[in-house]
Amino acid sequence: MTIGSKGGALALGALVVAGCGDRAAVWDTPGAPVEARGLLGAVAIIDAPAERALMLPVEGDLRIAPVSLPIGRGFSTAKSTPDGRRLLVLARGDVPRKRASDQAPSLTLIDGSTSPSVLGRYELSDPFSGLALDPEEQFSVVYPTEADAAFVENPNELMIVDLSKPPGASNPKPFTLRSFGGRPKELRLTPKLSLPGGITRLLVVETDRDVALLDLGHLDHPEITVKLTSGAEPVTPAGVAVHDGEPDRTDDARIAIRLADRPDVVVLDLLPLSPDEQAASPQTFRPLPNVVDVGGVPGDVAFVRTDGGLRLAAPIPARSVLSLVDPVTGIGTDVPLGAPFERISVVTDSVGPTDKGSDVALLWSASSPNVAFVTLGVTVGKPYKSVDRLELEQPVADVLDVPAPNGHLKLLTAPGGDSFVVLNLPARTASPILAAAGTHAKVAADGLRAWMVAGGFDTLAELDLGTLHPKNLTLDRPVDDVFDVARRDGGRALVAVHPTGAVGLTILDAEHPSLDQTREYAAVLLGGLP
After folding, report:
1. pTM of this prediction exceeds 0.85
2. Calpha distance 492→513 (Å, rounded)
């Protein structure tokens, strides 16, 4: 039987009718497209007309316990941290601001646990739309995008928010990058690096012609800009890789900058200042650029450890090789792959180190139906221990990580969304999973299953990542998205979002999904403001 399905809908309908005489006018505002985010212990529905995030934690009996949290006026974007513990919501405020009571732009930090709450609201000076997240969740960076064009704007202005500290006069901190004609395109926050001035983190900003390094531990210092373009033709950065070097050294951290449509990679050695530089410079380190030719246009770059030391790895799809370059000498070695590959990821943590602590790299391609494992060790008479290549039915559009206890798996998606591959890294096996066209997958945070859903279909599927058994479930209404979240009793719930009316939901037990044990909700946005 379906518990609470029709009864829940009727009770909600009665609540709406009873309150229609004095409800807020915002309830009559036409609904906007659904913005939903899955968090650790709740699903967040962004209700922009009502200026709120409707947080939906789930009780042990699959009932939702809505919590309405204010997000400010003029919703711009919302992003969750990688572990789903927090949600950041960027709002533009009132544009233009004409009265003292008008809302300023803001960044709202929300706790995404089973007891959601607002952790802080950071008032911003400008209504920007770009939002960069920190994988370690300490910082967030708000920046202008091309969609923020104003009568007068500074495209190189950033606002750096320290999420570990409360809002204040110096938090957020505005910062303007020195520009040589470019504007920010990509922002990346590095892990902790042992630099000459101490352990710190860097914000790496890629523009269309240079790269800026900002020391997040010394925001009173100016950034360091590495100019990549000296002539009339712009040289555009196309991605970076970072390595801290040896743990006991402070002079061997490096940043590699891949260049668009060029065989050159710029390697920045982050070195100590000389005595003369220390007296004249506010910085605590200096980047020394070294340009290396990797033998073709790389699709990606990564730092890897071989038993010969650290190397810059660059797959060259035009030559079907993996180029390994010594970042100190610039001397390279090609590893034949037998097929073209564009992407590389280090998977040593999943399969364990090889000879003398060397890495294992996974390579894949969006144009060739192959994946390859490269074991970066050396044996007598053979440059590298092994290249294991697996031929697939389709190329790879994306690679999804799987948390423990199945961290040894990767879920590969095909470009059309009509097939998936469960890749077992230690066993070097690739198990195909077929699906309807347009299907996308989400891996549960407990690492035990993945959910497959295609927008507009009323069928979804659970894929058990231990047995690879799919379980298809047909609901009463089309499904837009699904979220696997922790319940308040310690179990897990699957929240299926229906894009009909004012957002409908179907709630299932994620660990033991069954259609005779569900709860259904219609028009959750019309349930009143708690």
Report:
1. yes
2. 10
